[in-house]
Structures are given as C-alpha cells and as structure tokens.
Amino acid sequence: MDQLNLLLEGFGSALTPINLLWVLIGALLGTAVGVLPGLGSSMAVALLLPITFTLDPTAAFIMFAGVYFGGLFGDSTAGILLNTPGNSAAIAGSFEGHRMAKDGRAAKALATAAVGAFVGGLIATTLVVFFAPLLVKMATAFGPAEYFALAVFAFLAISSVVSESVVKGLGALGIGLVLAMVGVDGPSGTVRYTLGMPQLFDGISIVVITVGLLALGEVLHIAGRIHRDPAMERIGTNGRARLERTDVRKALPAWLRGTAFGVPFGIIPAGGAEVPTFLAYGTEKRLAKRRGDKEFGSTGSIRGVAAPEAAGNATAGTAMGALLALGLPTSATAAIMLAAFQQYGMQPGPLLFERSGELVWTLLASLFIGLVVLVILNMQFAVVWAKLLLIPRHYLYAGITVLSMLGVYAISSSTLDLWVLLVIGLLGFVMRRYQFPLAPVLIAVVLGPLAETELRRALTVSEGDVSVLVSSPVTVILYSVLVLALVVSALQHLRHRRQKSAAALGGTGEGPDGGSGGSGGSGGEPVAPSGPTGSTAAADASGPSGTARETEKMGTRL
Amino acid sequence: MSQQQTVPPAGNPAETAGTAGAPGGPQGPTPAAPRGGTARRGFWAGRSELIMPLLVAGIATWLAIETATMNVMGDSVPGPQFFPTIVCIVLYAVALVHAIQLLRHPRLPDLTDDAVNADTSSDLLGDLASASERGRERIAGRTPGATLPQGWKTYTDWKTVGLIVGGIAVFILVLPVLGWVLSAAGLFWVVCKALGSQRPLFDLIISLVFSSVIQLAFNAGLGLNLPGGFLEGLI
C-alpha cells in the first residue's frame, strides 16, 4: 500500500492552515464562477488560472483543486434554479432539477446535486489514487507511435465524434493546430509563423488562448445578443439544503449508477462529462419508466438529479488521473489544467510522479479536502449562492473582461499579449457566432506539439516507413476503436438527418412537442401561452396528440 | 458580412437588472419582421457564415506561404514543414466542404436559437437521454417556448460588440500611461454601459472600487506589479 503512505504524506502537506486557506479560496471562487449564470467550470479554471501564477506551485495547485471541483458544484446551482446550466455537462442534471425547483423542492434538488457531486468525485478520486501507478506503468511502455495514436484519438473523438458538426469540428481543430505551431520548432530550431516578432518565438501562451477563447469570446458573444436574450425565470430557494432518510435511500443507487457511468469517461478523450451525464440521465429515465415512477418528467425526480451530477464529478475525478498519469487531457477543462502545469515547467505524464511526486500527492489530497469543503459550502449556504444569481449581467461581464486583461497581463506584463488576447477573443466570438466548437481548439493547442513531435520522432526512427504508426497492439486497438466510433457517429448523423427531412416532408415542420418521455403533461419550461414564439406555443398547446405520436416514434427509435 | 437589421430597434432593451424575469416578464410582439423580411432577402441571407470557410482558407493560405518560404534549420527527415503541410491540406479540405454546404443550404437564423452548444452533438446526447423532441431542442441550446423580449434581434448586435472591442483596444493603449486603476475602471465602465446599464454614476463608483481592490490585492498581497501610470507614487 505504497499509495496510501504517499497520500497520507500528501495530506500532511495539504493540511497546513495556509494551504487549507488556499483550498477554501479556490472552492469559494470556483463555486462562485460556476453559479453565475452562463459561466461554466472551464471558464472558472481559465479565468482563475493566470491569477494563481504569482503563487508557488504547491499553493497554486491546491487552490486549483478547489476551483476545479467548485466550478462543477456551482454549475448545477444555476441549472436547477435558473434553468441555465453553466456548461453542457450540467444540462442533464438541470432537466429534473429545474422541475423539482418549480415544484417547490429547490433546496432538496440542490442538496441532491451537491451530495451527488461529492459521491462521484470522492469515488473517482479514490480510484485515481489506487490506479494512477498502474496507468503510469502503462504509460512508460508507450513509444512515439502510441503517443501519436493517443493524440489522434483525442483530436478526432473531440472534433468529429462528439461535436455537433464534423466539418466545423475539424476546422476548429486545424485552427488550434496552427496556433500551436507558432514559435520556434523544438526538434529543429526553425522559427515558424511568428510574423517576424521575437516576442512570439516562445509561441502563443496557452493561457492567452484559453482566456481569449473562453472568457473574452464569451463576453463578446453575450454582447452580440444581450439586447435580445429571452428573459429567465428565477426560482428562489429557502431554508437549508437537507436530505431526509427516504431521499437518501432513493438517491443512493442513482448516485452510484451515475458514478459508474462517469468513471470510465474520465480516461476516454471524448470531450468531458456530456456523454456520461446524459447516459446516466437516460438510464434513470428508462428505469423510472419501468418502475412506473410518475415524478420523473413531471414534478421532478430526485434520481434524475442524482445520477447525472454524480457522473459529471466522477468524470472530472478520473480525468485528473488521466491527466496526471498519462499527460492526456480528456476535456477542455483538463486541457487548461495541463496548461497550468506547463506554465510551472512541469509536464504531466509518467515522469511527473517521479520528478514532482510530492506535489502530485499533495494535489490529490487537496482534491479530497476540496470535495469535503465544497459539500459543506454547498449544503449549508445554498441560499447564499443563489443570491449570486441576482448580480446584474453587465457587472458580471464587465468584471470578466477586466479579469481577463489582468490574467493575461500578469503572465509577462506585455501589452503584445493583450493584443493577441483581443484577436483570439474576436476569433472565439466569430466561432461561437457560427457554432464552431471550441473544445477542439483547446485540445489541439495543448496536444498539437506532442502530436507533431511524436509523429516526426516515429517517422525518423523508421526512416519514413508509415507502417510504424500501426505496428503495436496498442495503436491498432486505439485506431480500431476510433474508426468504430466514427462509423457509429456517422450512422447516427445520417439517421437523424433522414428523420428531419422526413418530418419536413410530412408537414409537421419544426414544431416540438410538449412534455418529455412517457409523461403526458407538458412538464417542461415556463411556457407563456401569449408568448411570441407563435409556432412553438401553438405546438405546445396542441400537445397531447403530438406527444403520443412522438413517444411511439421514440420507442421504435431506441 | 451581411448585417440585416430587419427588426425595428426598440426603445428599451429588455435588460432587467435586479428583477431577472418575473414570470410575466417583458413580452414583445411576435418578431414577425424577420419572417416578413425573408421575402426580399439577398444572396447573403443565411450565407454570412461563408466568412468562416473564407477565414479558414485564408489561414491555410498564410500557412502554405509561410511553410514554403520557411528558413529551415537542421536536416531531420520529416522536418518542420512536414506537419504544417498536413494541417494545411486539412484546412483547405474543411473550408471547401463547408463552403459547398453553405451554398447548397443557406442557414437562416433560427427564431428560438439561443446559443447553440457546438461542442457536443445534440443528436448524440438526445439519443443517450432518450429525449423527446422538446428535450432535444433544449439540449441543442434552444429555448422552446421562451418569452422573447421586446426589440428582439436575430442578428448580431454589432454596436455593442464594437463598443466593447473598442473599449479593450483603448484600454491596451492607455494602460502604460494612465496606469491600472484608471484604465481598468474605464474598461469596466465602458463594458457596463455597452451592455445596457442605466446608472452611469453608480457604475463609475463600482468600476473604481473594483480596479482599486485588484491593484491593492495584487500589488500588496501577491507581489504582482501592475502599472501605476502617472499616479505612481501617489498611491
């Protein structure tokens, strides 16, 4: 039980008063940014990352442990109370969560989400502690061809398999790779794509890219639509978030099921927690149907909140393991974390445990401490967090703008960085405007240099023989799984396209039906009958027949 | 880029400060104008997205020129031009396919479109959650049945975006001269104003407090040197 000793040592260095303070600050900041409507955990990490650079590495990573999980805890609060989940991984939990809130059980939904996040994160982090050395052992056997295969897998899985549009995903990936190639080429020393500016010889800092794309791009995107966003309905919450014994008995199996879905996805580079959270939600939905659960889809089921929240944090937990042991970021947030390590001159991967073992185990211990702090913060002070939703949006986005400038200026006190930030912010804005995914850019920026170096290394050794790339079992397995995923995803896109064109021909138009799943009533959003969205409202009013038809179709589809 | 302001500008943007959306919140008339406007739409309607393949092709061309004229050091066999060449080919292919898609099927703005989540396929998630059509709309980032505010626009509000971009550019220019406190306060104030704040004086106080707190926390607490500008020595 080597790991346990190391972990205990980690706790030893994390449990000093000053380090506890850093965890607390990180947890507070992370939750706060996560709670704020429209701001997700990746934004929390991107905005707060540069500010931690003034700290020493241990303190910075301890604080990051709090921010990392805090953003996830906070995301669900906005989703449940406002129906505006901070990032797409929180959407699944907000379906039933918002229904519970409208039914007057907001506090219970928040508590279920918080405990679910705690359980998922706790189990996943424990698994990381025990299996990280195994992953490290596996990774040390990897050669250039295997690393290149891993990078290709991450590139294509995130840009093509899970993204909305393959063309846009690949475009985003390419843009990211171009950004990553700016600067001096490591292996040969050639200066590339710097526009003759010596300040760019080191390349564009990943921090500038993440802050520009995620924070500034988001501000500009909101600015482009602030005078037209639909008004949101806010649901107040009162009392402390508490769970009764019956609730726990109901939610516990769902928490565990959700965790089981979330754990494996942290290691698979599939863009983060979206897939497992929805998988968990879908499973609960099917189980509820079989059980004849009337709450699900109408007044809101506690299980429908519990499972996705646990899945989301379980993914985040094991993603940290994959990042530390393999150096492989499996989501955009993990990619930003990797950037943080690089900023301190550390390269996550098998060598990290040897070279900076103490820091790694302190970080893992801080993740546990962070989870405990967060579950207390979120259970006891749910009402206080909900107050954050009252901050007017213009102050919010003005603050984000100023903080982005601060963060980027803090890296090297250079105004050139600020200009690059503005250009990348504009890039992020047009990409959002035309629904280009941003995750592929971040993954490409982080893994691009690795992919290029390993590819060239592999080809140099084999003297140009391409077959070296598929010469080991690991690479063959990785590429086969990737091809399989691409085929399945292509079939899925084709099927939906055919259904859509069939629906258009049938004259049903784009009218969405009311309700969801098997429940007859429209247990959905705040529909204003006098609302201006003519077609939508009309379709809702004529719900029942449509719902029946739709449910039937769904049945055959799945 | 085709900017069509088909919706008549409304007097009061429905930016509610504290009382974010009471159920009966701000309601506008059906935004019929965009639909009426579709009759006389030109070639660019729904095709403004062509700017993206153009941008991608532009990046690819720049990459190609730079790669061809690169001053290569060393003589390793897959050299520094090898990987960029692959990326360049991918970018050109993507731009071509995207342009063809847009020319064949222009994408008109969706009335209920609300910040579509492009990172994850909504079809994939919808299947995983066995969602209804309505749930799928939600997953795709739309808000079916949402109450649309008055003065609702389908197109990007370039005035607001321009104000913020301008504000940032001015901030970068004056930062070394005016120092952090004044420049950052100015930027904060401009962004507030652009996003529809109605209380300029109150905002001014908030901006100054915000930027001063950052200056104090970072200069004193964390030892990061933010430029003092001409106020250097005074504070």
UniProtKB/TrEMBL annotation, chain A:
TM ranges: 20-39, 46-71, 109-132, 138-158, 165-184, 204-224, 322-341, 361-383, 418-434, 441-459, 471-491
Superkingdom of source: Bacteria
The protein, known as: DUF112 domain-containing protein
PANTHER family documented for this protein: TRICARBOXYLIC TRANSPORT PROTEIN (PTHR35342)
Basic and acidic residues bias locations: 549-558
Pfam families associated with the record: TctA
Keywords per UniProt: Membrane, Transmembrane, Transmembrane helix
Organism: Citricoccus zhacaiensis
Region (Disordered): 502-558
InterPro entries: DUF112_TM
UniProtKB/TrEMBL annotation, chain B:
Transmembrane segments: 50-70, 82-103, 161-189, 201-222
Record-annotated DUF1468 domain positions: 51-227
Segments for region (Disordered): 1-39
Coiled coil: none
Keywords associated with the record: Membrane, Transmembrane, Transmembrane helix
Stored InterPro entries: DUF1468
Compositional bias of kind Low complexity: 8-20
Protein name according to UniProt: DUF1468 domain-containing protein
Organism taxonomic ancestry: Bacteria, Bacillati, Actinomycetota, Actinomycetes, Micrococcales
